[in-house]
Amino acid sequence: MTDVVLDGVHKVYTGGVTAVRNIRLRINDGELFVLLGPSGCGKSTILRMIAGLEEITEGDLWMNGGRANDLPPRDRNVAMVFQEGALYPHRTVKGNMMFPLEVSGDDRAEANARVMELARALGINTMVDRLPRTLSGGQRQRAAIGRALIREPSLFLLDEPLSSLDAGLRTELRVEISALVRSTGTTTVYVTHDQVEAMTMADRMAVLRDGVLEDVGTPEQIYED
Ligand code: ADP
Ligand code: ADP
């Protein structure tokens, strides 16, 4: 469980591109928060700063009330899913989902039970012994989500996870992802350029344009404006 506050956050990349400026944002504990905006507006930059993968140039990041600007990624208890799941190609679905538990040295039988339970929740329990390349794009993203959630992160970050999928699958998966993260109560930040996706998934959302926050609120509040 985690809340996240960005207080006056700027990001200037080496080379001089200002990606985001003066971002003020509170993401509440247990919330499914969507960052919406066109390509290049700074969504990924914000997500990567929250994950600790990108340095914050100016301003403060707070996680659970503690200043987190300099907290190493491994101490943030975050899990991230990208557009292409980036599964380990030589590992089966189960091997991929098991990997984070092996690293932390969890009991093997318990780990196996947890993987199977989550695989069932994700609708991929009949595919756990298959290699990623033998799966559809949607199944691969389910496996990537499974690998990300297996250690029950405090904070779940998704960067355009459905943008490589066709429209039908996107609709199906956005419903499933919403249900899954809400059932676990995991604080989630979901990045997309798709307005419908944002409106249908978000508890609250932020609209970003050219590195600046234009609007923050529930989909209803944003829609009224
Ligand atoms: P989005 O996720 O909304 O597509 P990004 O956060 O990826 O936007 O990019 C925001 C801006 O920062 C863009 O102008 C992009 O070109 C620039 N940018 C992103 N990553 C880097 C980088 N590693 N080095 C320099 N500029 C970058
Ligand atoms: P194998 O032993 O058959 O090479 P592994 O399951 O060890 O298969 O790894 C499969 C792929 O995942 C390899 O390309 C490997 O580089 C990559 N990989 C394994 N562990 C990690 C890790 N901790 N971080 C990033 N990539 C990894």
UniProtKB/TrEMBL annotation:
Organism: Actinomadura meridiana
Domain of life: Bacteria
Signal peptide feature range: none
Domain named ABC transporter: residues: 4-225
Segments traversing the membrane: none
Boundaries of the shown chain within the full protein: 1 to 225 of 472
Protein name as annotated: ABC transporter ATP-binding protein
